[in-house]
Amino acid sequence: MAEDQVDGMGMSRPRDATYGVDVMELRKIMEHHKHEGYDYVQEKHGGVQELCKQLYTSPNEGISGSPVDLEDRRKVFGSNVIPPKPPKTFLQLVWEAIQDVTLIVLIVAALISLGLSFYPQSESEGGESESEAGWIEGVAILGAVVVVVLVTAFNDYQKEKQFRGLQSKIEHEHQFSVIRGGQDKNIPVGEIVVGDIAQVKYGDLLPADGLIIQSNDLKVDESSLTGESDHVKKGEKTDPMMFSGTHVMEGSGKMLVTAVGVNSQTGIIFALLGASNEDGEKERKKDKKDKNRLKGEEGNGAVAAVAYRGSRTNTAGQNTPYVRDYVLSNDAETKVDIENIHPVVTGNNAHNNSNANNKVPEEGGEEGEEKVPKPKVESARKEKSVLQGKLTKLAIQIGYGGTAVAVLVVLILIVKFSVTKFGIEGESWTAEKTPKYIETFVFYFIIGVTVLVVAVPEGLPLAVTLALAYSVRKMMDDNNLVRHLDACETMGNATAICSDKTGTLTTNRMTVVQSYMGGAHYKSTPNFKALAPTIQELLVRSIAINSGYTSRVIPDKDGEGLPQQLGNKTECALLGFVLDLGQKYHTVRDEVPEEALYKVYTFNSVRKSMSTVISMKFGFRLFTKGASEIVLKKCNYILDCDGKPKPFTVEDQEKIVKNVIEPMAGDGLRTICVAYKDYHTDASTKTEDSEEVMKDNHDWEDEDSVVQNLTCILITGIQDPVRDEVPASIKQCQSAGITVRMVTGDNVNTARSIATKCGILTPNENFLVLDGKEFNKRIRDANGEVSQELLDKIWPDLRVLARSSPQDKYTLVKGIIDSKLSTSREVVAVTGDGTNDGPALKKADVGFAMGISGTDVAKEASDIILTDDNFTSIVKAVMWGRNVYDSIAKFLQFQLTVNCVAVMVAFFGACIINDSPLKAIQMLWVNLIMDTLASLALATELPSMELLKRKPYGRTKALISRTMTKNILGHSIYQLIVIFVLLFEGNNLFEIDDGKYAKIHAPPSQHFTIIFNTFVMMTLFNEVNARKIHGQRNILEGLKRNPVFIGIWTGTFVAQIILVQFGGTVFSTKALTLDQWFWCVFLGVSTLLWGQIITTVPTAVIPKKICWWRRKSSAEEPEMEEELEEEVDGMPGRRGQILWIRGLARLQTQIRVINAFRMGIDARYDSSSISSMHSYHSLQNQKHRKPVATAASPLATSGEEGGASETQF
User: Fold this and answer.
1) Could you write out the DSSP letters of every residue in 937-970?
2) Cα 825 to Cα 840: distance, rounded to the nearest angstrom
3) Could you tell me which residues come within 8 angstroms of residue 492 by beta carbon, excluding any fewer than 6 positions away?
4) Rounded distance, CA 439 to CA 134, Å?
5) CA 1058, CA 327: separation in Å to the nearest integer?
6) N or C: which end of the chain has fewer CB within 10 A?
7) How many Cα neighbours within 13 Å face the side chain of 283?
8) Burial, 765: exposed, middle or buried (Cβ in 10 Å; 0-12, 13-18, 19+)?
């Protein structure tokens, strides 16, 4: 292994040495807060530098990064991986599937039927053949239930397996910058080890705990741990403690990693909340015995409580330290009792996970404490997606209808039987006939339950799951990394896209193409030697020093391609300008290392500039760069051609703006102004009027007084070309009914030029281009409040919002979503890359974060991550979203036709012939096989460009359109006519025995077999019709592109042949002749011809009142959905509603794996953040005090303030 110090190659522990500090001591360090932490490290370890030596790492070079050293550190200090919760076993999924109420009812009914079949009967009551066949139906229904349960469990198992694979990919995508072997490297957060030197910058989510080595204007949002939204200022001496899961909101710096994985704040909270893997049932039972352990009482020594920084409230109301000594040194030791942990997740839950609904049970306090009432926990989930809301509504309506028909069928059968037997025939109920009557009633009950089974579309949740899962995996190939599954289908309904400019519409490959310095405007790179010596020095030093030291320009490896730009692209453009001038910026940085910088005012969306103060012999020098019109206003001097400062009047500024900045912006260039100022400690050294003598009490924290009276060095015009494919993509969006708006922080002229090149603005059209100031002026009333009425006058015509703040972006997005100008309501997608884009990304229906340039905060707030930062990928997301929506609609059209026909046949059969022409086992076959396979076939259609040729559905448009209603009613009528003709005349047409009025357990007849087979054939061919839902005539178009559909359709056809010919008594079928098969298939194929006739019928002839799912107004929808959600989650006591509630419960049960995946994505993708959870300190406070209702603004609730909306000035 490497020696103690290896210059330029990092450090690692010698073989014969031990680390100077252990895990326990590192955890103890992190228990201290603010200045106490600094004092403790100084007192116990001699400072951070000495601690680095004890961990065998270098503050500048980092660790060596050798595999042996990394493995050694993981072994001693643990790895930065939190063991995931183990997946559910197949048997657990089977047990969950069998909890379905309807399946339980079927099982009970089948068992009763089975038991009665073995009860001895007299010869006159049925005969030997009937009694022998009596048990078959009961066994067949039980077998069908077993198949349903196994298929459901297998589907859930497969889905969870796929989702975990996707989850692991997302985890790998999350990377962090560290220094190893003297080189900056981006590594997956799971590979970070104790001793790493991590480079933090604004927008980062810290993946581990650490101590600050060096910082520049560093501010951190610790609300995820403390609940306090105020940003905490960090510094080497003020507050050096950095905790995992917190957000860096401003500044930059370096930190020494001191705790990872289960020993970090993230790991501790995950362990407390049960996210860590537990080692077997025995250990869990053992832990449960010590129930008071986590309440602060001393344990029996078996397993000590987890160390955690925080406090608990004692009986006197004082805060007492809550610190324990148990150390989780590796993943296997994560055994934590969570019996008494009841996390309260409040509104600032950054993930909107479903665990926000966790309720805190009432508990009696310890002796002497009052009993604390349980706080009401508000759900912090995002609003339901468009499709979820519509499916929820539809499930209720289907549940009501199905329950009503099922109850009617049972009542009609029982009443008719009773009237016939006991009224007309005059029989009496005797003990001998009791089993026979009960068996008859059970038979009727089974028919009723089977009608309910068929009525509720069992394949719907499977179709939703398959469509979403299939789309998610395919979208990854199109550079869309989906974090929330419902974002897929929501994107298909998008009516507006608010897009960033930099990197999304443009290439994010910035270069300086124009410059103004020394009174000359250069349209190409100037001759450096021709510049005045003062300008030469100031230009190179200002750019090299007053840029993030993580921003670098690296030559192409082959020496042929363009140099590689790392870090902030604007800064890279300026550094590239220095290189183009033939100078070397890194030599200046070697001379003035980052540690030597006296003061840094980092860029943020408020400043729109960055300033750095360095020490000089005469005092201090301030460098500033930023948005040209902002920095120029702070300049009182400008360097002339000789490099001498000359007065820079307001008139001179206006000339520069008119003759230099506006022409640059008109060419689509981003304009950056670079300036400086000298501060002298001694008045005798001052030589120019532009220089200032420092006062004795000079306050460097007063930025406004420091950054003023500047001297302008140069103005640059930076080109960021529009992506070649963007204009065509925007045109596609516009033809698809989607309005694209550009929201940028750039100059209004630059934004207008880029928008014109993209096609967002077109000639001779009256669209609005506003800057942030004018935008706010137009939308605010006399009281300064945002008025929806005023906003509604602006947003329809607004196409470009320039010089916008994150608050402006949020206001625009919220205003469009809340607006009721359009009948279908707007569905808004937003792109963002900066920390402060978080609120807008969260408020949007679909938030897109930039995978390359985006900050971790933006990614966390988003629904989809664009891995290539390309607008074209958003268009692909629209296609996939519409495809998901259409896939569900196709399945619904097919499924509701099947359900409608099956229910009507069962109902009228019960009314007329006291029996259902479709037997219980046959309807279960249709319900299981047809639904499951049809959902798979229709959910795997690939999207086509045809999807972009129609308008979006919008927020309030019914899921089932009038065209679909026409198709459902038309095909239902055809199928019902065919089935009833076969029922009443089929025996005469085919010259076979009549199957009507047969006794219970009578042998199967060809008559009813023909009805069953014809129904299946019509259903199969109608599945082909269902592929088109917009009235297209060519139903076979695109069929070759879907081999899954062809395979499933063919397989189902073959299975039906086998079932009919060989099903026998089990499936109540009797083998058919070839002639009979021909007629069954002919009637099935006729469905295709009938479909063409239906298409010919104008949709307008369908009255809107027939579409009963349209009756609920959009304003009532949220209340209804919320009410339903409460009922289903709480399972109301009124058992009479259980059957119709079962419809939605079934949907939610089968989609539970999606919700679990969504939680997993949020938690594991951001496992380094745990921002959806409070610290134990917050949990304890919640348990020991009454909840206080607070009104928070959307921005405050999100906990994501500060930062930048775009990486620009």
Assistant:
1) HHHTPPP-GGGGGS----SSS-SS-HHHHHHHHH
2) 18
3) 878, 880, 881, 882, 883, 884, 885, 886, 952, 953
4) 10
5) 63
6) N
7) 12
8) exposed
Give the separation between CA 234 and CA 250, rounded to whole angstroms: 10
- Closest C-alpha among 392, 388, 380, 308 to residue 346: 380
**Most confident segment among 674-678, 895-899, 939-943, 986-990:** 674-678
Q: How far is CA 166 from CA 309, 557, 1158, in A?
A: 34, 33, 11
Cβ proximity of 528 and 536 under 8 Å: yes
Burial class (CB in 10 A: 0-12, 13-18, 19+), 657: middle
**Neighbouring residues of 219: CB distance < 8 A, sequence distance ≥ 6:** 231, 232, 233, 234, 248, 249, 250, 251, 1202
How many residues are present in the chain?
A: 1209
Could you give the CA distance from residue 1148 to residue 456 in angstroms, rounded to a whole number? Answer: 13
Task: Region of 1147 please: left (phi>0), alpha (psi -120 to 50) or beta.
Answer: alpha
Q: What are the tokens at 1137?
A: 């509603």
pLDDT (average), residues 176-203: 88
DSSP string for 532-553? -HHHHHHHHHHHHHSS-TT-EE
d(CA 858, CA 742): 18
Element (H, E) at 895: helix 871-913
> Which structure tokens are listed for 91?
């048997």
pLDDT band at 10; cut points 50, 70, 90: low
Note whether 203 and 834 are within 8 A (CB). yes
Highest mean pLDDT among 52-66, 459-473, 898-912: 52-66
Q: Which residue in 848, 842, 854 sits closest to 878, CA to CA?
A: 848
CA atoms within 13 A on the CB side of 415: 9
The question of whether 16 is a catalytic residue gets the answer no
Question: Across the strands, what pairs with 620?
Answer: 615, 679
- Indicate the SS3 state at residue 746: coil
Q: Computed from CA positions of residues 906, 398, 467, 1127, in that sequence, does the dihedral angle turn out positive or negative?
A: negative
Asked whether the predicted pLDDT for residue 356 surpasses 50, the reply is: no
Nearest to 497 by CA among 311, 708, 741: 741
With a cut of 70, say whether residue 822 has pLDDT above it.
yes
d(CA 878, CA 738): 10
- State which amino acid sits at residue 822: S
Inter-residue contact 858 to 456 (CB < 8 Å): no
CA angle, 1062 then 1067 then 1070, to 5°: 50
Q: Name 392's bridge partners.
A: none
As beta bridge partners, residue 482 has 864
Three-class secondary structure of residue 606 per DSSP: coil
- Strand locations in 455-546, DSSP E? 480-482, 496-499, 511-517, 520-522
Torsion of CA 434, 440, 442, 443, to 10 degrees: 160
Q: Which of 69, 204, 239, 500 is catalytic?
A: 500
**657/568: higher pLDDT:** 657
Element of type H or E holding 719:
strand 710-719
Please report the pLDDT score of residue 162 as a whole number: 63
Average pLDDT over residues 700-715: 91
Pairing status of strand 669-680 against strand 480-482? unpaired
The mean pLDDT of 535-560, rounded to a whole number, is 87
d(CA 258, CA 29): 9
Local confidence band at 890 (pLDDT 50, 70, 90 cut-offs): confident
Token pair belonging to 963: 């065209």
Token representation of residue 885: 């929506």
Find the angle CA(894)-CA(895)-CA(896) to the nearest 5 degrees: 100
Residue 262, Cα to own-chain centre: how many angstroms? 25
